[in-house]
Amino acid sequence: MAKQAKVDKGKCIGCGSCVALAAKSFKIGDDGKAQAIVPAGDDEATVQSALDGCPVSAISWQGN
Ligand code: SF4
Fold first, then answer.
1. Ligand 1 center to residue 43 CA distance, Å?
2. Based on CB atoms within 10 Å of each CB, which residue in 5, 36, 45, 56 is the most buried?
3. Total domains in the fold of the chain
4. 55 lies in which domain range?
5. 13 within ligand 1 shell (Cβ under 6 A)
6. What does each C-alpha distance from 1 to 8, 27, 62 come to in angstroms?
7. Residue 15 Cβ < 6 Å to ligand 1
C-alpha cells in the first residue's frame, strides 16, 4: 500500500499550499482546513513536496 499522509487540523492554517503542490492528495474541507485524500492520487515525491512545503509542518506521514 502506498504511504498515506495526514493533516493535523490543529496546526493547519488553511493556506492552500499543499493543495497547490499535490492537488490529487489534499483538499480544503468545509472547515477551511486541509485534509488528505485517501488514497493519495500523487506519487510519493509529490506528496513529500507538499509535506515539506507546509509552512506550519501540519502534514506528516501516517504511522510516523
Ligand atoms: Fe494546511 Fe499546511 Fe496544507 Fe497550508 S500547506 S493548507 S497549513 S496542511
1. 18
2. 5
3. 1
4. 4-62
5. yes
6. 22, 21, 12
7. yes
In this structure, what CATH number is given to the domain that contains residue 13? 3.30.70.20
> Which pLDDT belongs to residue 63?
78
* Residue of 17, 24, 30, 52 to mutate, ligand 1, most atoms within 8 A of C-beta: 17
- Whether 17 is in the pocket of ligand 1, judged by its Cβ within 6 Å, is yes
C-alpha distances (whole Å) from 57 to each of 16, 21, 50 are 13, 14, 10
Which triple of cell numbers denotes residue 52? 515539506
